């Protein structure tokens, strides 16, 4: 009860009102809609006014999942009451696990009944089809809401699809639609083009894993469109036709290349006319080469953010010049990329992900943050750590994510030789080091990987994940147990520079000092443990 009252008083204070101001149902419902569901429901005991406000709130949130208290019959009762008493429904959020054809039928019935309400403005559906050979078809009425401004449908478990519309040319009345989000939802090419051509007020379109078998994807004459994200399958060679979108600012195009022998389309060959207003561009599954970079610089003079999936980059060097760019991400980089040079005076964020760390050079920039994600094999030497130390000098804050394939012998490196070759002391600007091994039973925790890593940096936080295959093995946890708690130091120097260590299992928990009581978390007796460490160095 204390939680409900504190939340209630907090929201009243935000509106500059006293607790006795209970004569505005809309205000009370506004407050309830901003509280967690359980806490909002507990406001019912405050007074009859609050009870009435909660029982007629125009936002329905159904959460029918395994482990949740809400059942199908509870949804039926609530919906019957709303329809019987003609209570307005402005927003409907449904999260449901489809475990039988009965639950699929309930979901279809609820959606069909609610979408007929003329006051409906937003609909969000999150559907998980867990049972094989069970399907769910969204009723055609989902497009009948004249005041509907947002449709979000997400279907998890990609092999089972939720179908949208049973007809190729559905009757579309939702001409006020501003946002369309479909993820894992099957829809016909004709039906989607009818929606896009009828809803001229669309501002945001996200279509992820939903355009299977399309021959052509058309987006035309959407003068208010601000954001467009498309996720297509390269198997079907879908053609793009995008034009007359003068206000488009965010464009993301990801072409899934499932097999290496699939042809990759050059970015220059796409039939798109995005306009010069694009400021955020994300490309995946298309050929990105020097010609692509020249096209980007020419076509998008006001570009501020660029994300490139580099799997199709076939050159050893990546050189890019852009006066307006502020954020740059190069992901999925292969072994052949050895040199990255970026001339960008406004650049403040850089992200790199790949198998090897190239030489990085930013002659003119104002970098504030670097993120590096590497999937390494054990064939790394002192040169890797020297190059990583140079990378850490490029920015004020650095975040590192390291994944190591440990199915082979552990790393063996001469730490004394590394120490003599280092030009800088350990970097203290690493905000977090995340670490995980792959298929390592016990070899890696006896290697000198962390000894070498702590020679080049003293991270503030370490996120230690268990081995992806052997869930009992969390090698960093065992390292902390042996080197810090038990003080069984070998030739490692880094434990002597640790002043204090704190630990927690989840980000939302408070930090606690590392003590012997945490032994069960550190020695592997608790499988699958994720652990956060806060390291304070001398």
TrEMBL record:
SUPFAM superfamilies: F-box domain, L domain-like. It comes from the Eukaryota. InterPro entries: At1g61320/At1g61330-like (IPR053772), F-box-like_dom_sf (IPR036047), LRR_dom_sf (IPR032675), LRR_FXL15/At3g58940/PEG3-like (IPR055411). Residues 109-248 form the F-box/LRR-repeat protein 15/At3g58940/PEG3-like LRR domain. Signal peptide: none annotated. PANTHER family: OS02G0105600 PROTEIN. This is F-box/LRR-repeat protein 15/At3g58940/PEG3-like LRR domain-containing protein.
